Amino acid sequence: MKHAVNSDKDLGTEGWHKPWSGTNGGNCVQAKKLDRGRVALRQSADPGGAALIFTLPEIAEFIAGIKDGKADFLIA
C-alpha cells in the first residue's frame, strides 16, 4: 500500500466515485481506479487530503475480509 499526499493534485479530480453513502452527512469513502491495476481510496470530506493506494489483490482481499465479517468489530 502506498499513499498520495494530495489526492486532487496527485491523482486528479475526475473519476472519483462514492460506491456507497450512509446517513453521515456525506462523509464517505471515495474510490478511483488508477492505471497499472491500482485503486485509490480517500475521504470525501477532504478531497485534497491523502489517499491510500492499493493493488487489485490488496483491495480484493480488503473487500473479501469485510464481506466475511472481519471488520465487524469496528461497528460493534
List keywords for this structure.
globular, 22% helix, alpha+beta, 76 residues, four-stranded antiparallel beta sheet, 2 helices, 4 strands
What's the structural blueprint in terms of helices and strands?
Blueprint (H helix, E strand, L loop, with lengths): L1 E3 L2 H5 L17 E6 L3 E6 L7 E5 H12 L9
Antiparallel strand pairs: 1-4, 2-3, 3-4
How does this model look, in words?
With 76 residues, this protein is α+β, with helices and mostly antiparallel strands. It has one domain. Helix content is 22%, strand content 26%. It contains 2 helices and 4 strands; from the N terminus they run E-H-E-E-E-H. The protein has helices spanning 7-11, 56-67; strands spanning 2-4, 29-34, 38-43, 51-55. The chain has a 4-stranded antiparallel sheet. A hairpin with a 3-residue loop joins strand 2 (29-34) and strand 3. The protein is globular and about 35 Å long. The mean pLDDT is 87.
Helix content: 10-25%
Give the assembly state of these chains: single chain
Strand content: 25-35%
Uncertain regions spanning at least 5 consecutive residues: none
Total count of helical runs of at least 4 residues = 2
Shape verdict: globular
Write down the overall mean pLDDT.
87
Structural category: alpha+beta
The first-to-last residue Cα distance is 27 Å
The string of secondary-structure elements, in order, is EHEEEH
Largest sheet, strands/sense/barrel:
4 strands, antiparallel
Tally the structural domains: 1
In the sheet with the most strands, the strands line up as 1-4-3-2
The number of distinct β-strands equals 4
Radius of gyration: 13 Å
